[in-house]
Every structure is written in C-alpha cells, then in structure tokens.
Design goal:
The complex is a heterodimer. Chain A contains 17 helices and 11 strands. Chain A is of the alpha/beta class. In chain A, helix 9 links the parallel strand 7 and strand 8. Chain A is globular and about 65 Å long. Chain B is mostly helical. Chain B has a domain of 49 residues: Orthogonal Bundle (Histone, subunit A), CATH 1.10.20.60. Chain B is 34% helix and 4% strand. Chain B contains 3 helices and 2 strands, in the order H-H-H-E-E. The interface between A and B is large, with 74 and 58 residues.
C-alpha cells in the first residue's frame, strides 16, 4: 500500500514480494476448491498466489479499505511451509495455503488486535484464538486483519475508529457490518475465505450487502476462545466465502468443542456437510415465515427472494408458509439483552490491563480517574451508547421491566422456532430489508441503523444456524457488479448440513 | 411495564458514573434523546404476555460444565508478553495508581 489512508503506526509491514511471472488475473477467479486443485496439480505454488494477493491488495485496498493490518512476513512463511510440504509429497488439507482474512476482534499471537477500537490501538495479542489455531493447523495463510465496527457494534462498519470500508459492488455504499472488512475482502477478491463474528447479523448482513456467502453457525458449534467478546449469549464465529461449498469447508475445520469455551459442544457433523446428498436435500420442507416479509422490504429484495424460492422449488423441495408470531419483538428483545452483556464485557477495557490509551496521562491520577479518562477517550459513540443502555436495563428498579422481560420474550421467540421446526426443516427469508445503503444514511439515527438487522437477529436469540447467500438471477450471473441481494436459510440446532447442503445445490443451478 | 423510565440529563449522568464514563454536555444531550427513543421503542414489549414463561438466560441449555481445577497452561505460554502489554509494570506486576 503506497498511501495508507489510516493513521495506524504499526500496520503494514515491509514491501510486496517480487512478481514471478503471474498476474493477479490468473487467480481472481479462484475459489478455495479451485485453489486446492491447482495447488495439487502443480499449476502454481502457494507462495506465488499469496504474493499476487498482496500485490492486488496494495492496489485495490486503497479504495476498498478492507484491511487494518497486513501480515506479509508471517503469511509468506506460512505459504512456504505449505509448498515445502507439497514438495515432500506430504498430504495437505483443503485449506492448506488458502489466503484468509480475519476480523480484527480475533487474536493472532504477536499481531496487533484492535477490535476496531481506539482503546485497543496498541494491544498485541498474546495467544492464538482457537479458530486461528485450527486454521493454522490446517495450513491456512493469514493475509491480515480486517476492519469492523468498534467491538462489532454496528451494521455498516462506519463505527470503526480507523477507516471506512467501501462496498466492492458499489463504492458509494457501505459493505454492511459489523464484519464489513471480511465481507469486502472476499467480495473484492482480496482473500479466498474470511472469518467474521455474528451477534445479531454481523456475518450475514455484510455477506448479503457484498454478494458473498456468510454462515452464522449454531450457538456452541464454534469456540469463541480468543474472540473479543461483545454479547456472550449471542456471539458466534463463522466463515465468509465465495461459494457455499467453500463456507462448508471452512466451517468443518473450525467447528468443535474446546476446553477454553464452556459453551462449545462436540457435535459429530457427518460427511453430508461436505458431500450433501441431493436425494435427502430434496426431502426437506422449506418454511417461509410471513413475518419476515415486512412492510419496509425493498421491492428488489422481495423480488430477489421470490426468484430464490422458485429456484429452490425447481430442485423439488416442498415450500410452505409458516408463522413466527413473536419475531416482531426480536429487535426490542435484542437491544435489551445485547447491551446488558456489552456493558459487562466492555468493563474490562479500563486503561489498566491491556494497553495504554493515547492521550491519557497517568501522572497524579487515581484509579477511578484513569478508568474514566481511558474509557471516555478510548470508546466511540456507539460503544458508549450501548454501555449506558446496558447499564440502564440492568440497574436497580428497571431490571424486571427490561432485562427480565426481554429474557422471557427471548424464550417465546425460541419457542416459535421450536414449534415451526416440527413442520418444516429449513426456513427461507430475506437476509436484510434493503440492499446496501449509502454512507451516512443511517449514522444520525441509531434506531434506523438497528433496523437493518431485524431479519438476522431472531436466529441469534434462538441460537440457530443461519446462512446468507446471494440471489442468482439471469442478470447478475453475467453482471456480478449489480447491487447484490441476499437470502437467508435458517436451520435447526446443529443442522448446518441442511442449510449448507441446500445452499450447495442452489448454487449449482 | 411495571416501571417505565423517563430519561433525563440527570439519569444519563448517573449511568455514566456507574459505568465509569465521562460525557461532554453534547454527548449527554444526544444520549438523552437516543435512549429516550430506544426505550420508547421497547414499549411494544408491554403487549407480550409473559406470565408463566421461564426466562431464557443464555444461548445454550448446557448446564454445569466442569473441568479439573488446574490451570490451562497451553494458552498462556509466555507470561512476559502479557506483562509487556500492561501500561505500567514493575517487577512483573501490573502497576496501578492509588485507589483513592
């Protein structure tokens, strides 16, 4: 990157490696599956591809702004290790050498990790998150850390303390959020896969806005150890990819129980995760919840989702209208429970434990003054708003009216899903009420911004797996720059194979 | 709802104190409006009949996940790196200013 449009001191290290006769266009069409086949066939080395990706990032990311930190040296070493293993004839996995982008709220040992916040501007991670360990073991290459809304609070990545990320499909629009950098990096061919985190839609909503695939797994399917927590009863880590098949591959590597996350579960995902059986998928019944086709649904989104439903029908699946009557309360319920957990989780960032906050002097201050100064300088407006809101709903006199009430409504929202899943196997909905919006359109009014997650939040409250994938129609098949529309498949707990299987057959149509 | 709240400048100042935050006057004024609007939106929950409903207190129904009461050393291999992240350090301790 010649001109860093952010004011980060330690971000981008070194210079791009030398070109070896390839151009990026040789690799822009790659998916993880194609990359793996090419690597095995000896068409290119992992290092060649990684070098080209960095060259391309140097050009393209000036405009897009997906990455906060690039990890050139480490990525080069990781790629070389994969090439050496191949030269030795060792067996390599599907993710070996694959260039990945990682949301900046996940820890990579020795690397700066900001969570998009000034309060962690100088924080260096001291260990690998469990998902990073698993990807590392699988040979994945980490190109860098991606931009996000501060502490994953936002729906446009505009709440990043560092920079704007632009939507690759239309740079005048937001990429969605909070995992906007990860979604944009895959959409702009600056990574083949990425990790994001999803508390109320932060993987699925940017995936829909940018036209890529995003999966929020079942609560408990993936360890959050090493993820900077936002709302612990809702947070899940999941993949972004260009295809559902690639997303399934990444998910199969990062899933599983972990000693370091007591909520994680060992679920035996069978072979159907990666090799779905069409005969079984055809037998699934798809429910269409009427409450998700809200009044504010943009006509283009409605039309896109209708196209997707027709395609799903053409695969031979039964489609059936259903009702989730308490869904309309999900947004209120979420905006009580989530800030309550945020106010607790963010209390640890106090200027004492992790790194000093720029501009906060310690001389002559007592502990309370340091807390106040560090938090007030280090947190942005949305983080402060949610801490105050969370402190309020938990405070004496208001707990029952807000927090306890919301937990009961949450139980009713989950019960709606449990009842409906007795009749259907999968649900199909729009991912977002609108397509990607313009910068600044919703920043003045927090409620307007919150409403963009209204269709993704219920799956988090109920702990269900949900996949967003781009609507394919006759126009955008040939014109990938058209503003994307995403639709969402929601599955039963730990039935990722249903939604990923259906998604894989859909994308082959 | 049993106790509906009115958000005033005073209540924002009180919440800021509880959360160890300090706001400028402009921030306080903005949060009075924002929180007022958000809490007003929450009023729709009054219409939901939750009598006899058990609260959902977490994201999973897993209960009592135990492990051996011994340190998991694998993660924190290098204490030095953690200490290096402290704003102030003395002899391996996190140095903090006086509490009072």
């Amino acid at each position: 990157m010649t001109n860093c449009h952010c004011d980060l001191p330690a971000g981008r290290q070194g210079q791009a490696p030398r070109n070896d006769g390839y151009t990026f266009m040789d690799f822009a069409h790659l998916t993880i599956k194609k990359f793996h086949a090419g690597l095995l066939a000896g068409e290119f080395r992992a290092l060649d591809v990684i070098q080209q990706f960095f060259r391309y990032i140097d050009e393209r990311d000036v405009e897009i702004g997906a990455y906060l930190t690039l990890l050139r040296d480490e990525a080069g070493r990781q790629a070389e290790e994969v090439d050496i293993a191949i030269a030795k004839g060792e067996k390599i996995g599907m993710l070996a050498g694959v260039p990945f982008a990682i949301k900046d709220n996940m820890l990579i040992a020795g690397g700066r990790t900001t969570a998009g916040s000034k309060i962690l501007e100088n924080y260096t991670a001291t260990y690998d998150a469990t998902v990073i360990k698993k990807l590392r073991r699988a040979g994945a290459v980490f190109l860098g850390k991606t931009n996000q809304d501060e502490f994953a609070m936002g729906s446009s990545t505009e709440n990043s303390a560092y920079q704007k990320t632009r939507n690759p499909a239309d740079v005048t629009r937001v990429p969605g959020g909070s995992s906007g950098g990860s979604a944009a990096s895959v959409a702009a061919h600056m990574a083949l896969g990425a990790l994001g985190s999803d508390t109320g839609g932060s993987i699925r909503q940017p995936a829909a806005f940018c036209g890529v695939v995003g999966l929020k797994p079942t609560y408990g399917a993936v360890s959050r150890n090493g993820l900077i927590a936002m709302a612990s009863s809702l947070d899940q880590i999941g993949p972004f990819a260009k295809t559902v098949e690639d997303a399934a591959t990444i998910f199969s590597v990062i899933a599983g129980r972990d000693d370091y996350d007591a909520t994680s579960v060992d679920h035996a995902y069978g072979d159907e995760l990666l090799n779905p059986d069409l005969a079984k998928i055809k037998n699934l019944t798809v429910g269409i919840p009427s409450e998700y086709f809200v009044d504010g649904l943009e006509p283009e989104v409605r039309k896109g989702v209708e196209i997707a439903i027709e395609k799903i029908k053409s695969l031979g699946l039964k489609v059936k209208p259903i009702s989730l009557p308490h869904s309309k309360y999900a947004l209120s319920c979420y905006y009580i429970i989530m800030p309550a957990e945020v106010s607790s989780n963010l209390a640890r960032f106090d200027g004492i434990r992790f790194s000093p906050v720029e501009g906060v002097t310690r001389d002559g201050s007592n502990l309370l003054e340091i807390y106040k100064k560090s938090k007030s300088k280090g947190f942005g407006a949305e983080a402060k708003r949610r801490i105050v809101l969370g402190t309020f709903v938990l405070s004496s006199g208001y707990y029952d009216a807000y927090y306890a009430k919301a937990q009961k409504v949450r139980a009713l929202i989950k019960k709606d899903f449990d009842e409906a899943f007795k009749e259907v196997d999968v649900m199909l909905t729009p991912t977002t009420p609108t397509r990607a919006f313009k910068f600044g359109e919703k920043t003045a009014d927090p409620l307007a911004m919150y409403l963009s997650d209204v269709l993704t939040i219920p799956a988090n409250l109920a702990g269900l797996p949900a996949l967003s994938l781009p609507v394919i129609n006759e126009t955008n098949k040939h014109k990938p720059t058209e503003l994307p529309v995403g639709f969402q498949l929601i599955g039963k707990h730990f039935h990722e194979a249903d939604i990923l299987g259906l998604g894989q057959f859909y994308e082959r149509l | 709802m049993e106790t509906m709240a009115e958000i005033t400048k005073k209540s924002i100042e009180h919440l800021a104190k509880l959360a160890r935050l300090e706001f400028t006057d402009a921030e306080t004024d903005k949060f009075v409006v924002d929180l007022g609007n958000i809490l007003n939106y929450f009023k729709e929950l009054e219409a939901v009949d939750t009598s006899g409903v058990a609260p959902m207190t977490g994201g999973t129904s897993a209960r009592n996940v135990f492990r051996e009461d011994s340190p998991l050393v694998e993660t924190f291999a290098d204490q030095k790196e953690i200490i290096a992240g402290f704003p102030e350090e003395e002899r391996g301790y996190n140095k903090i200013p006086p509490v009072f």
